[in-house]
């Protein structure tokens, strides 16, 4: 299976640069995973595809202002750090540009009075492990010095940083938003409750894998980075009961999907746990618990388009993507969405 098998042509003008004025007004392409039949709907129509007793699963991670700009002592320069994963004792995995200025032992100054860091390790693909030094509360300092880590294909300024957060965000730690959830409003969630749809929450902190392209020709040679996730006992119970009763599990976003498939055993039973996952889902994968997936449109040749292709077929997904281009859907983080049913 080649990475190039997942390529499609996308005009630059279809990459959404800003969110819509109203979250729930996005378009929604509905794809039948068995037949490939496509319907063109609006996101607010999602209620028509979810029945009483079904469970919809949301990732409640919160994006942190993970992009920091610093310099070395006595140097006039800008070094960009993107915090991608937190460890104990104020250590973080980071992406650094330019990396050559962040050798092991280098001290980085972000604000001389508030925050400095030392580079303590360099990982296999060039990521740096840095250890922060500060007085006070780290999250408060990060809120003051950091900026929202928008993807590189978004070049326009985001006026309202809350629009890169879901309305149900809770647990801070992500370097990127779980973007399929950006379409939801409190009104939509209330309507789901009224319809007696179960709403379950998991947490996966989106990390470095989101920013890493697939650099190998053979998909099977790609190495996924691990990300930390949590699923509690209540969520596991609700999902297991839903499956017992013959109802559907609808994942919002590839992150929620990866959590559920990582926490489900071979008998189709999901378990509460907190751990890391490097699960790589590509065509040929047999889903253990996920029935439907709401997701945005993804980059060509990415692990995410491989994941959505595995829920139906690569041919169905690429045909749907080509139709989305023809119909001028908005793509990527602030774009429209696809419901695979």
Using the alpha-carbon principal axes, give the shape: globular
Taking pLDDT < 50 over at least 5 consecutive residues as the criterion, the unreliable ranges are: none
The CATH topology of the largest domain is QueA-like
For the termini, the CA-CA separation is 25 Å
Count of individual helical segments = 6
How many domains is the backbone divided into?
Answer: 2
Tell me the major beta sheet.
Answer: 9 strands, mixed
Structural class assignment? alpha/beta
Strand content: 25-35%
Rg measurement, Å: 20 Å
What is this structure, in a nutshell?
This protein has helices at residues 138-145, 186-194, 233-244, 253-263, 303-311, 314-326, and strands spanning 27-31, 38-42, 55-59, 61-63, 67-72, 79-86, 91-97, 107-111, 115-122, 128-134, 171-174, 198-204, 227-231, 249-252, 273-277, 292-296, 337-340. With 341 residues, it is α/β, with parallel strands linked by helices.
Give a verbal description of the structure.
With 341 residues, this protein is an alpha/beta fold. The protein has 2 domains: 3-63 and 159-340, QueA-like (3-Layer(aba) Sandwich), CATH 3.40.1780; 67-145, QueA-like (Thrombin, subunit H, Beta Barrel). It has helices at 138-145, 186-194, 233-244, 253-263, 303-311, 314-326, and strands at residues 27-31, 38-42, 55-59, 61-63, 67-72, 79-86, 91-97, 107-111, 115-122, 128-134, 171-174, 198-204, 227-231, 249-252, 273-277, 292-296, 337-340. The strands form 3 sheets. A 9-stranded mixed sheet has the order 2-1-17-16-14-3-12-13-15. A 6-stranded antiparallel β-barrel has the order 5-6-7-10-9-8. A two-stranded parallel sheet has the order 4-11. A hairpin with a 3-residue loop joins β8 (107-111) and β9 (115-122). α5 packs across α6.
């Amino acid at each position: 299976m080649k990475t190039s098998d997942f390529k499609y042509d996308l005009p630059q003008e279809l990459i959404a640069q800003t969110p819509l004025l109203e979250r729930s007004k996005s378009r929604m392409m509905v794809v039948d995973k068995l037949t490939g039949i496509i319907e063109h709907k609006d996101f607010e129509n999602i209620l028509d595809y979810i029945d009483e007793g079904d469970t919809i699963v949301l990732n409640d991670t919160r994006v942190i202002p993970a992009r920091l700009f610093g310099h070395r002592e006595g140097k006039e320069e800008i070094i960009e750090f993107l915090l991608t994963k937190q460890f104990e004792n104020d250590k973080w995995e980071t992406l650094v540009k330019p990396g050559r200025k962040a050798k092991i032992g280098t001290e980085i100054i972000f604000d001389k009075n508030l925050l400095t860091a030392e580079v303590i390790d360099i990982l296999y693909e060039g990521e740096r492990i840095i250890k922060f030094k500060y007085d006070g509360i780290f999250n408060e300092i990060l809120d003051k010095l950091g900026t929202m880590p928008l993807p590189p294909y978004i070049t326009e300024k985001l006026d309202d940083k809350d629009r890169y957060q879901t309305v149900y965000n809770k647990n801070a730690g992500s370097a990127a938003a779980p973007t399929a959830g950006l379409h939801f409003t409190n009104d939509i969630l209330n309507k789901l409750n009224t319809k007696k749809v179960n709403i379950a929450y998991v947490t996966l902190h989106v990390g470095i894998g989101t920013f890493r392209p697939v650099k190998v020709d053979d998909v099977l040679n790609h190495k996924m980075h691990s990300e930390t996730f949590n699923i509690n006992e209540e969520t596991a119970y609700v999902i297991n009961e839903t499956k017992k009763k013959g109802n559907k599990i609808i994942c919002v976003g590839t992150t929620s999907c990866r959590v559920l498939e990582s926490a489900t055993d071979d008998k189709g039973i999901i378990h509460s746990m907190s751990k890391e996952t490097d699960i790589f889902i590509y065509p040929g994968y047999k889903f253990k618990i996920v029935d439907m997936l709401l997701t945005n449109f993804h980059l060509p040749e990415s692990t995410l388009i491989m994941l959505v292709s595995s829920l139906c077929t690569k041919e169905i997904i690429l045909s749907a993507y080509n139709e989305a281009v023809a119909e001028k859907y908005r793509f990527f983080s602030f774009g429209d969405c696809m419901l695979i049913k």
